[in-house]
Design brief:
With 198 residues, the protein is α/β, with parallel strands linked by helices. It has a domain of 102 residues. The protein contains 4 helices and 10 strands, in the order ββββααβαβαββββ. Helix 4 links the parallel strand 6 and strand 7. Helix 3 packs parallel to helix 4.
């Protein structure tokens, strides 16, 4: 998801993102959807994984494809398109433990330049962390949030299980406001957009 801005998202006749992108997210919103009349510019893409996979290599491509169930033709197509995008748009992915990596990255407060938000994002990760690691992650985010300013904000965006669905939650600093933005299936659809209600 480090290249989310390179994809096309559509709902009916409306859309957001590159209209020529090979990755097209369509038919996922049941009713309401996020606003599409916004601009987003990514200044830097960084991430970590316990066992990073490089989609730019043949071995990486085959490894990623092995995780898709063989009868899911559409997911294979989307994955192939996402791999094409990954080969064009670079992103640095370090090997490491997520809480320790985030702690290092945010050790001196919110990084970056004024006017740019730092976004910490994770997807289906929380259940694999120990209680100690979860507590560390939360402590690091809270401490970094205290150092955030309106000119250098911090966002914690996560897509994690909540019962039989997954929730998209966003916590923003300064202010520490936590919002439930959406609920969806674990593979990303259908999406019940709640952002307008919060």
């Amino acid at each position: 998801m480090l290249r989310w801005d390179q994809y096309r998202y559509e709902a009916g006749h409306e859309g957001w993102g590159d209209s020529h992108s090979p990755v097209r997210i369509t038919g996922v919103f049941g009713g309401e959807h996020p606003r599409f009349d916004v601009l987003a510019r990514i200044v830097e893409r960084r991430g970590c994984d316990a066992s990073p996979i490089d989609p730019g290599t043949e071995e990486g491509r085959l490894t990623l494809q092995s995780y898709v169930w063989p009868d899911q033709v559409e997911r294979f197509r989307q994955l192939a398109a996402a791999i094409d995008v990954a080969r064009r748009v670079s992103a640095l992915v370090d090997q490491g433990n997520a809480p320790a990596w985030v702690e290092t990255e945010l050790a001196d407060g919110v990084p970056g330049v004024p006017g740019v938000a730092t976004v910490v994002y994770h997807s289906i990760v929380w259940q694999y962390l120990s209680k100690v690691d979860r507590a560390c992650f939360e402590r690091v985010m809270a401490a970094a949030g205290e150092a955030a300013t309106h000119n250098k904000p911090l966002a914690w965006l996560r897509f994690e299980p909540a019962g039989n669905v997954a929730e998209v939650r966003l916590q923003l600093w300064p202010g520490c406001k936590d919002r439930l933005l959406a609920r969806s299936g674990f593979h990303g659809k259908p999406v019940q957009w709640l952002g307008l209600e919060n």
